[in-house]
Design brief:
- By secondary structure, the protein is an alpha/beta fold.
- The chain is built from four helices and 27 strands.
- The strands form four sheets. The chain has a ten-stranded mixed β-sheet with strand order 3-6-9-12-15-18-21-24-26-27, with no helix packed on it. Strands 1-4-7-10-13-16-19-22-25 form a nine-stranded parallel β-sheet, with no helix packed on it.
- Helix 2 runs antiparallel to helix 3 and helix 2 runs parallel beside helix 4.
Length: 269
């Protein structure tokens, strides 16, 4: 049963109009703003801030130092025609994430771990992530960008506004996707993509420099993609060439990404 938070009247961090279920677990330092609703089974860690008009559905777990802005919805029912309540899986959120106004993230339905979000992610207004997605750490999501169900992201990715990502796509570390792009295949690490459908247009050079990746390793990344896309080799042949001799860690990550891709990797423009 959702109830008024007047039973927590000794906690000055909770607004009297907030509705918090008896079975929700909030750290004493959590702030809850006016007219927010927190359901049964929700867990919210220390120093998190839930602002006004937020709805956090059942079995959503947030770690520490998260901020959830006005009108955000976390852990809502999956937008899946086959969903029934007994299939529900959790939404698991790490630490230090920032959810801006109107963000909407579905809980899981088809995988045991449900929908999962790592640490230090920034979600701009209107962002949506579908059920059973896996989002890593230090990612930025532009306004009204959308991930379908079962999308998997690595770390340090920048997704610009109005980007749409097809279900089951995998996006590698340090990728950057330009605004309004339509992603229908896997996007490998360290690249920049644009277009409808998205195509690789180059390396995320600025992101790599800001990340402190050395000039030598940036050169290795560039050489790896020259081999994959511009050496007149098929993918298997190019990967065999890349495996020869000593390699940078980033080259190994590129090889591993291509070998594990199920949907196929995005082509070069």
């Amino acid at each position: 049963m959702i109830r008024h938070s007047d039973q927590k009247q000794n906690n000055m961090n909770i607004h009297p109009t907030a509705l918090i279920d008896d079975r929700a677990e909030l750290h004493d330092s959590v702030e809850v703003g006016p007219y927010s609703i927190i359901e049964s089974g929700v867990i919210i860690g220390a120093n998190s801030r839930i602002e006004s008009g937020v709805r956090i559905f059942q079995d959503t777990h947030l770690g520490e130092n998260n901020r959830v802005c006005h009108g955000a919805v976390l852990g809502c029912e999956p937008q899946d025609l086959g969903f029934t309540p007994e299939k529900s899986r959790p939404l698991l959120i790490g630490n230090n994430n920032h959810f801006k106004e109107g963000v909407n993230i579905s809980r899981g339905v088809k995988t045991e771990g449900g929908t999962q979000i790592g640490d230090h992610n920034y979600f701009m207004c209107g962002f949506h992530a579908g059920h059973d997605s896996r989002l890593g750490n230090h990612n930025v999501f532009g306004p009204n960008s959308t991930l379908a169900g079962h999308v998997e992201l690595g770390d340090h990715i920048f997704i610009s506004g109005l980007v749409a990502v097809h279900q089951f796509c995998f996006i590698g570390d340090y990728a950057m996707i330009a605004g309004c792009a339509k992603v229908v295949k896997d996007i490998p690490p360290y690249v920049t993509c644009d277009g409808n459908p998205a195509r690789i247009i180059g390396l995320n050079s600025i992101g790599l420099r800001r990340a402190g990746i050395s000039a030598a390793n940036r050169s290795a990344i560039k050489q790896a993609y020259k081999t994959l896309y511009h050496a007149d080799l098929n993918t298997s042949q190019a990967l065999a060439v890349l495996k020869q001799g000593a390699r940078a860690p980033e080259t190994d990550e590129i090889i591993d990404f291509f070998e594990k891709s199920d949907r196929g990797v995005t082509a070069h423009r």
